[in-house]
Design brief:
This protein is α/β, with parallel strands linked by helices. It has one domain: Rossmann fold (3-Layer(aba) Sandwich), CATH 3.40.50.300. The chain contains 7 helices and 10 strands. The strands form 2 sheets. Strands 6-7-8-3-9-10 form a 6-stranded mixed sheet, with helices on both faces. The longest helix is centred in the last third of the chain and has 16 residues. The protein is globular. The two termini are 32 Å apart. The structure holds adenosine-5'-diphosphate and magnesium ion.
């Protein structure tokens, strides 16, 4: 791991009375071939700025749906999802796209890197919508890759990297825009234990630097590192007390 990490400046905190996320009565119902599925059955939850939250639960319980709502990739069927006081329900699709580009970092189980681009180019792609000057872009990409310990792999393509390294590139791509929150859906699901531990080290360091993390995981070792553990089953969310 590289020791040359630059501290990211702290984000403007949400107003004192506001949680980073506030969800009230959130439902999500899918209709398919005349059948309806209730993926989320009324979720009320607040997530504090700077927290590290894990979400566990059985397949089909609604975890990915909840993460997509937090990521402004979907809108709830009813209820409200607010990020730093702004309600996604009343936002236009252009505003939601801007929120995703600037405020929300996403990491998926399958890394989702572009195979023909180098690590540097994959990370840089996330800055495209922000319209930054080229020198600032280059500095931010270098900083993000250093942050995940991959400064020396910037010119490698995904096929030349291990799974753990690929996921670290994906994390660099998510943090390079300096988001308010990092959302991860099974980020270690395709990795062996050693690579999982690489990812955990990176995630814990980001959280120590102040980044809010929400991580869906089947892995109790990952969930065990979270400060707050939630469980989502049949569309209903509850706190796990240990
Ligand atoms: P998890 O991530 O916990 O496995 P999901 O959020 O993916 O759960 O799914 C919750 C429920 O919603 C499941 O029954 C699933 O089949 C259904 N579902 C999810 N996405 C869609 C969709 N796009 N269309 C129809 N049904 C969906
Ligand atoms: Mg899922």
């Amino acid at each position: 791991m590289s020791e040359t990490q630059t501290q990211q400046p702290p984000r403007t905190p949400a107003a004192a009375s506001e949680a980073l996320y506030r969800l009230i009565g959130v439902t999500r119902v899918y209709s398919q071939r005349g059948r309806t599925v209730t993926a989320l059955a009324g979720v009320d939850v607040e997530i504090a700025e700077g927290d590290f939250v894990s979400i566990q639960g059985p397949t089909g319980g609604g975890k990915s749906t909840l993460l997509q709502l937090l990521g402004a990739l979907e809108k709830p069927t009813s209820g409200s999802v607010k990020l730093a006081g702004a309600d996604f329900a009343s936002a236009s699709s252009a505003e939601l796209a801007r929120t995703r580009a600037e405020e929300i970092g996403f990491v998926f189980q399958g890394f989702n890197l572009i195979p023909t681009l180098t690590a540097r180019e994959n990370v840089d792609a996330a800055l495209e919508p922000l319209g930054l000057p080229k020198t600032e872009r280059q500095a931010r990409v270098a900083e993000a890759l250093a942050h995940v310990g991959l400064a020396d792999r910037a010119d490698h393509r995904p096929g030349e990297l291990s799974g753990g390294q690929q996921q670290r590139v994906a994390i660099a791509r998510a943090i390079v825009k300096r988001p308010r929150v990092l959302l991860a859906d099974e980020p270690t699901g395709n990795l062996d234990e050693a690579m999982r531990d690489e990812i955990l080290v990176v995630l814990e360091r980001l959280n120590a630097d102040g980044l809010t993390l929400v991580i869906v995981t089947h892995d109790s070792a990952v969930a065990g590192r979270a400060r707050r553990r939630l469980r989502l089953e049949k569309g209903t969310l509850r706190e796990v007390t240990t």
